[in-house]
Structures are given as structure tokens and as C-alpha cells.
């Protein structure tokens, strides 16, 4: 008797997906409410001999007057003489009796 080999079926190994780790919730620390900073507005007014003077306006007026005299002005300094109701200014370090603003 001759024995013949019968083919043996090969079983494919099926890979099972790895067990998923239990999902844990990530807890984030509660962030404190962010406070918005409120912008503070302020104004400076000089009261001299019953007259109110706004230094910022005087300074801006002096810069504008200086630009009319010298287009490429780089430095303006303002000197207020309240007793004369006038503000004198210099343009790039140079002064003149004509460099003044009536207050």
C-alpha cells in the first residue's frame, strides 16, 4: 500500500487588534477669568491767574507752527510764559522772538 500525502490546510493566523487602553478624560485646570485692563484717560490743565491752559494743545500748536517755518523740523521745545499769555518755542535748538504762540 502506498501512502499518499494529503494536503493539509494551513490556517491563517488572524491577528486580533490590540485591546485598547481605557480612555481617560484629560482634566484641564480651570483657568481664572482674565481681567481686561481698562484704559485710563487723563488730561492735564494748568490754571494760572484764572486762565486754563492745555499743555498738550500748546505743544501740538507749536509743532504745527514750527513745520510751517521749517518743513524738516526734528526738535521743538516749548516754553510757556503765562504772565505774558504766550508760548515761545525753539526749532532744532534755534529760537527767535517770532517763534511764539498767543495763548
Give your account of this protein's structure.
With 103 residues, the chain is an alpha+beta fold. The protein has a domain at 46-102. 15% of the residues lie in helices and 20% in strands. The chain has one helix at residues 55-69; strands at residues 46-48, 51-53, 76-81, 86-91, 100-102. The strands form 2 sheets. A 3-stranded antiparallel sheet has the order 3-4-5, covered by helices on one side. It has a two-stranded antiparallel ribbon with strand order 1-2. The protein is rod-shaped and about 135 Å long. The relative contact order is 0.13.
Spans of at least 5 consecutive residues whose pLDDT stays below 50 are: none
How would you name the oligomeric state of the polypeptide chains in this document? single chain
| Sheet with most strands | 3 strands, antiparallel
Report helical residue fraction. Answer: 10-25%
Distance between the termini: 134 Å
Which percent range describes the beta-strand content? 15-25%
Strand order of the largest sheet: 3-4-5
Secondary-structure-based class equals: alpha+beta
Shape: rod-shaped
- Spell the H/E element sequence: EEHEEE
Strands, total number: 5
- Number of contiguous helices: 1
Mean pLDDT across all residues, rounded?
84
Radius of gyration: 43 Å
